[in-house]
Amino acid sequence: MNPEIVSPRARALTPYTPGEQPQNRKYIKLNTNENPYPPAPAAAELLSRYSAESLRLYPDPRFGELRAALAAWYGLDPEEVFLGNGSDEILSFAFYSFFDPAHGPVLFPQHTYSFYPVFCTFYDLPFRRIPLRDDFSVELEDYLDVRSHAGMVIANPNAPTGMSLDRIELEAFLKRYRQDRICIIDEAYVDFGGESCAELIREYSNLLVVHTFSKSRSLAGLRVGFALGNPQLIETLFTVKDSFNSYPLNRLSQEIAVAALQDRSYFDDIRRRIMTTRSSVSSRMSAMGWTVLPSRANFIFASLPGVEGERIYTRLKENGILVRHFKHPGIEEYVRITIGTDGEMDRFIEMLQSLDFVRR
Ligand SMILES: *Cc1c(COP(=O)(O)O)cnc(C)c1O
Q1: Measured by CB atoms within 10 angstroms of the end CB, which terminus of the chain is less buried, N or C?
Q2: CB–CB of 207/183 below 8 Å?
Q3: Model-level pTM?
């Protein structure tokens, strides 16, 4: 192929690297923050009686039922809810909708979800990484100090640290943050003990809260994400969506998501289980000499001082356990470990006890 066929724009892209999804060997998979428990039983039940006939028709481009169900869950109006094919798609629409390169860089934390810089490159948006504090927490004050910028995005709880800001801190920040710029809060992990800012969207018309069914609702394969915000922000997202693909969320996904939302007690049960397992794994690892950051997500970020994260990753992988490590300066010694079932985490701890990680 003649390389000229590929546009300079496409040539310049550096895509996001998702965690491995090995198809060959069976691993204990603690690397992509999937939920170890199955989706709500109502999802399986719906699938078992699903009639393929309805797939003849396009899905609802305004997500009527699902929008109403989410609005009811959060005590909001349907006009304050947007849906996307995973929250990644919503983030992509939001970056396009609300960040203007003429305003300066998009701000986000030094260590955070690595899709943010990818979207910036895709849309030709400059960005600036704001350092974390020494304890890896987000310093909001620093975002107020950057005079010209295009807006900001933070994950709360943050990834890959798992650390979280309280709503009261975020609200105090929003009170002072400029009204003419957007603040996107990515709440992919908030259901595992964090505090949602969903209720603040009425007060702050420049706040967009983004959320997903992938983690706390065990539906990563369904690809359903949603955003909560001022109706005008939401309408802007619809305009962008309808300029790209009007039917992003398929029929089945919309219906299964509605069914899954009905089962609140199952949702509460699995997220509590994950939080309980998280706290026991954290304390067992601390007792073994690991540094474990305080997590309010379904993963923990931990290090064995003096040992490269890559080495820990490799040794575990050789032994059938997948975790994730990042070669970014400042966090090279850390690995991110998704919380699995109790049985999986017992195997993981046994493996840590049996392996000899040679220190530098
Ligand atoms: C997993 C994740 C998402 C994306 O989730 P989708 O599967 O696209 O809904 C978004 N933000 C963060 C911080 C995540 O970890």
Answers
A1: N
A2: yes
A3: 0.96
